[in-house]
Amino acid sequence: QKTQYLHLMHSEDGYADYITPTHTHQASSRARSYGILLLRGSKLVLARSLTEPPLWKGVRIPHARPRGGETPVQCACRAACAQLDLLKEEYWICHDVPPVVYYKSLPKGTEVVTLFVAFATGKPSPDAASDDEEEDEDEDDMYDWFTYGQAYQRVHSDGERDALRDCARALMRAHA
C-alpha cells in the first residue's frame, strides 16, 4: 500500500515533506476505553479505587482500556467485573439502547470512552434504600449505588456528566 503513494512524496509542488501514508492526527490513534453504565431500578453504580494510592479520585463510571484482541464489549465487561467486584451473570448489556461516548482529556491527547448500558439481574439487598432514596456512601467499598442526581454530582468530569445525560435521554427514547 505504501508504494502506491511514493510518487506523491517526490512531488515538486512544495508539499513533499507534508505527505505521509498515515495522517498524524488520525482518529484511530486516540486512546480508547470501554465501560458500562450499570443500572438497577433508578440507580446507577459508580466505582471507587481502593488501592494506595488510588488509581482515580472519588468515584467514576467503570471503564478500562482494551487488552490484546478484546472486543469493546469484552473490555467493558472486564472493567465492570474488576472494578465493581461482579460476576458477568450479575448484569446484562442492553443492546436496544445505544452506547454513549464521552471524551476525556489526557496530557497527550484525548481518550474516547464508550459506555454500554447494562442492567443488574439481581434485586437490591433487603437493607438497601428504595429507588427514590439516596443511600449513604461506604468509602471502604469498591462501589456504591447512586440516584441519577447523586451520580451527576459525584462524577468529576463534564464528559462523565454528559454521558449520564446522554444515557438518560437514550433510555427515555427506548422506553417510549
List keywords for this structure.
176 residues, alpha+beta, eight-stranded mixed sheet, 8 strands, 24% helix, 27% strand, globular, disordered N terminus
Low-confidence stretches: 1-11, 19-23
Order of helices and strands: HEEEEHEEEEHH
Structural class, please? alpha+beta
Radius of gyration: 21 Å
Strand fraction equals 25-35%
Distance between the termini: 48 Å
The chain-level mean pLDDT equals 80
**Main β-sheet: number of strands, strand sense, barrel status?**
8 strands, mixed
Report on the structure:
It is a single chain. By secondary structure, this protein is of the alpha+beta class. Helices cover 24% and strands 27% of the residues. It has 4 helices and 8 strands; from the N terminus they run H-E-E-E-E-H-E-E-E-E-H-H. Strands 1, 2, 3, 4, 5, 6, 7 and 8 form an 8-stranded mixed sheet that branches. Strand 6 and strand 7 form a beta hairpin. The protein starts with 5 loop residues before the first helix and ends with a helix.
Short structural description:
By secondary structure, this protein is of the alpha+beta class.
Secondary-structure topology with pairs:
Layout: H1 6-9, E1 31-40, E2 43-48, E3 59-60, E4 63-64, H2 72-84, E5 91-93, E6 100-106, E7 109-120, E8 143-147, H3 148-154, H4 158-175
Parallel strand pairs: 1-7
Antiparallel strand pairs: 1-2, 1-4, 2-3, 2-8, 5-7, 6-7
